[in-house]
Amino acid sequence: QVQLVESGGGLVQTGGSLRLSCAASGRTFSSYSVGWFRQAPGKEREFVSSISWSGRLTDYADSVKGRFTISRDNAKNTVYLQMNSLKPEDTAVYYCAAGGGLPTKRSAAYAYWGQGTQVTVSS
User: Fold this and answer.
1) By C-alpha distance, which of 33, 8, 13 is closest to 88?
2) What mean pLDDT is reported for the chain?
3) CA 48 → CA 25, 35, 117, distances in Å?
4) Residue 27: pLDDT band by 50, 70, 90 thresholds?
5) What's the CA gap between 107 and 95, in Å, rounded?
6) Three-state DSSP string of the chain
7) Does residue 73 contact residue 89 with C-beta atoms inside 8 Å?
8) Which pLDDT tens digit goes with each residue over 98-109?
């Protein structure tokens, strides 16, 4: 019974920052790997970042390396995505997803998905 809810999206100007949150319902959330994905209108869903259950393994898409940071607070059942130096190309709906295996960039590996939160970066 894992339910995920994203929050923190909004409208920012180029160069601004946002922190997305992914809140989970279950106490077993700490056992899950979590990934962040995004999808822009007319484009395919793409991998953004992932984190292992311990937080020790992290991965980022090349397009966001150095700008985004993923972290988790298992005591709060929450995973975060800190997004800095935002660009118009980052505009998309951002989804968090949870799975029982190792973190991966493959969306099919994640069994649970949130409804998404909109991030819009104006130029």
Assistant:
1) 13
2) 94
3) 23, 7, 14
4) low
5) 11
6) CCCEEEECCEEEECCCCEEEEEEECCHHHHHCEEEEEEECCCCCCEEEEEECCCCCCEEECCCCCCCEEEEEEHHHCEEEEEECCCCHHHCEEEEEEEECCCCCCCHHHCCEECCCEEEEEEC
7) no
8) 998 889 999 999
Label the pairing between strands 46-51 and 33-39: antiparallel
Which residue's entry shows tokens 């493959």? 106
pLDDT band at 2 (very low <50, low <70, confident <90, very high): confident
Written as six digits, the tokens of 37 are 């994905």
